[in-house]
């Protein structure tokens, strides 16, 4: 089935293990749009902080490291890349050390301010060059692009999310157990939902999509229906449907 091209921003939020990243990339690729993984940007800054060997509780020093780090996030949905100070760190930022530290680093207000500004710049550039972008993270609809024409909050029960995460880790060659992954999922949920700045939550006007019983094709189909229903598909002539 052919689809038009995306015009505007689709904001996808939700905790890890909901299928958010895979669905966001596939949606962007299907609709000829750009894709932004904001979580990868926070992970890259976290890696910079870990490499600097600073105390995660020293928010001032953490903010200084973040400010000095050069993070470049690619927006090609078929090849999403993350570079830190000129080096590709796409694999390293998914390791257990970064996963454990990313929540406290991303909770630092100055870090969020810095990265949100860069995310907005990337989004504006993508809209100018490609016309549409799918942005995924934890505060896209509430803080990064609060005026996005379509906001979707993906959710799923913790056990299902842990199983997906464990499967992803195994496929990537990272060692993990289901119990450990479930504990990590619950830890991040609690930390991200309770932080003072931009806590993880659904925007008031977001569509909540439960993916517990959905596979990737099912999630993608649901998202495509929502994009179409919100009039964000342009036909080849450039006319937006609606």
From TrEMBL:
InterPro entries, A to Z: Cytidylate_kin, Cytidylate_kinase_dom, P-loop_NTPase
EC assignment: 2.7.4.25
Protein name per its UniProtKB record: Cytidylate kinase
Main location class: cytoplasm
GO molecular function: ATP binding; CMP kinase activity; dCMP kinase activity
NCBIfam families, A to Z: cmk
Keyword terms of this UniProt record: ATP-binding, Cytoplasm, Kinase, Nucleotide-binding, Transferase
A single cellular component GO annotation: cytosol
Superkingdom of this protein's organism: Bacteria
Domain Cytidylate kinase: from-to ranges: 10-224
GO aspect biological process, one term: pyrimidine nucleotide metabolic process
């Amino acid at each position: 089935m052919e689809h038009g091209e995306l015009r505007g921003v689709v904001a996808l939020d939700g905790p890890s293990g909901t299928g958010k990243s895979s669905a966001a990339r596939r949606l962007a690729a299907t609709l000829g749009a750009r894709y932004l993984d904001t979580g990868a940007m926070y992970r890259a800054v976290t890696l910079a902080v870990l490499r600097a060997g600073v105390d995660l509780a020293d928010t001032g020093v953490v903010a200084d490291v973040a400010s000095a780090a050069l993070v470049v996030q690619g927006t090609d949905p078929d090849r999403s890349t993350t570079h830190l100070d000129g080096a590709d760190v796409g694999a390293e930022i998914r390791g257990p050390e970064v996963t454990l530290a990313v929540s406290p680093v991303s909770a630092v207000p100055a870090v969020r301010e810095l990265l949100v500004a860069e995310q907005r710049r990337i989004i504006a550039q993508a809209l100018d060059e490609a016309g549409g972008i799918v942005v995924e993270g934890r505060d896209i609809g509430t803080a990064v692009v609060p005026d996005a024409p379509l906001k979707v909050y993906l959710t799923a029960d913790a056990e299902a999310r842990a199983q997906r995460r464990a499967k992803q880790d195994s496929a990537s060659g990272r060692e993990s157990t289901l119990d450990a992954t479930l504990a990590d999922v619950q830890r991040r949920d609690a930390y991200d939902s309770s932080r003072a700045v931009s806590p993880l939550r659904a925007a008031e006007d977001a569509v909540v999509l439960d993916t517990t019983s959905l596979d990737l094709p099912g999630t993608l189909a649901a998202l495509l229906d929502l994009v179409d229903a919100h009039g964000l598909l342009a036909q080849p002539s450039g006319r937006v449907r609606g």
